[in-house]
Amino acid sequence: MAISVFSHASFVYTGEGIVNKEGRMLVPDDVSAIADGAIVCDSDKILWVGKTSELPAKYKKVKAMKLKGKRAIMPGLIDSHTHLVFAGSRAHEFARRCAGTTYQEIANEGGGILTTVKATREASIEQLFELAIKRALIAYRHGVRTIECKSGYGLDHESEIKCLKVIEHLKKAIPQMTFVSTYLGAHAIPPNVKKAKYIDEMIHQTLPEIKKKNLAEFCDVFVDEGYYSHQDGERILRAAKKLGLKTKIHADEMGNTESAHLAAKLEAHSADHLLKISNKGIAALAKADTVAGLLPGTAFYLKEAYAPARKMLDAGVRVAIATDFNPGSCYSLNLPLMMNLSALHMQMNSAEIFAGVTYSAAASLGREATKGALLPGFDSDFVVLPYDRFEEMYYRMGW
Q: What's the whole-model pTM score?
């Protein structure tokens, strides 16, 4: 297997300190930057990392990509929460909201998420794939090498399965990216269907087919005011776990429902959003392995108060940062922009931001043993930055 060597990087950011602390209570030095660094890998794994001057003799025979001290290397970014697969546009609704119409008024007219559901149901799998692959490549250009993709805009058995099949096609079409598939049938209540009947459909029809055809790794539920209750969420997620799926929860976004506490109780891999999380919820996450998935672009887009990241981090919670790319409340795949918002509006330090898009994001996807750090044995999906240090990624707002 061919070996590649990159030498004389301005810095190689291994993230070893973050790994050693499991992403908790981080200080800037935990990014573990190696000045004038080098990295050796094959097509699958990292073989060696260290100072260029200490490159082992057996690798000196390999022609190296010399970065001349001008470019940094870091783990490939991980966008751990996206809604990549959907059809249609809500740009006109966004314009109306900016002009003063409320989200609820638009929803009462049959708009909002139902606009996207209608378009997604009507779209063919080929049309959805064409849209999704263009979006995935945008994320790739922003440094993302691992991306979580949810269904959730079908809201019926056939359409949800169709969306998950699109994600399977993406895995084959872009092998240089890792796609993590999540079933979010419980994203909203479908129109003209009773919630109890839809929950039965998810548990008895859709989840078994997903397991049989291996269409998703995770199951997610929107546990919040006006959506799914604790009892609903627990029933769906326990059914998913029984089939061998891992779990996530959209938690405490619209109001405090203590769904972060539920995520910790169910040992979910992540509880995401958390704009309205309580002190009880923070304490529960601090004691659990459940990662807090923070989505600052959504707060920005909706002009809501940001999640209390500082309080979570100081309590010892592991925190990931993601785009929440979706058609209604954050139409952006620019993960470095989310890093910028995290620094400016959530008072996160450089190591916390670094971990949020690398190691802690990997942990939220069950990938922390192989992704999110540059250490021997980890996957070789690192990125060479066009800058000499990683802080440039979020200093340059929106680049």
A: 0.97
Q: What is the CA radius of gyration of the chain?
A: 21
Token code pair at residue 40: 């050796």
Instruction: Determine the Cα–Cα distance for residues 60 and 46; give it in Å rounded to an integer.
Output: 16
Task: Give the Cα separation of 70 and 80 in Å (integer).
Answer: 29
Sign of the dihedral defined by the CA atoms of residues 372, 376, 381, 386, in that order = positive
Identify the CATH number of the domain defined by range 4-76+375-388: 2.30.40.10
Which amino acid type is present at position 37?
G
Q: Please give the helix or strand (H or E) that residue 48 lies within, else none.
A: strand 46-51
Given this model, what pLDDT does residue 398 score? 87
Separation between Cα atoms, residue 163 and residue 234, nearest integer Å: 24
What is the DSSP annotation of 327-354?
TTTB----HHHHHHHHHHHS---HHHHH
Taking alpha carbons only, the member of 394, 391, 389 closest to residue 34 is: 389
Q: Where are the domains of the chain?
A: 4-76+375-388, 77-364
The answer to whether the CB of 233 falls within 8 A of the CB of 262 is: yes
- With the CA atoms of 291, 44, 216 and 301 taken in that order, what torsion angle do they form, in degrees rounded to the nearest 10? 50
Domain 77-364: give its CATH code. 3.20.20.140
In the chain, alpha helices (H):
16-20, 57-60, 91-98, 103-108, 113-122, 125-141, 157-173, 195-201, 207-213, 230-242, 259-265, 279-287, 296-302, 309-315, 335-345, 350-356, 359-364, 392-395
Q: How many residues does the chain have?
A: 399
The average confidence (pLDDT) of the chain is: 96
| 18-29 tens-digit pLDDT | 999 999 999 999
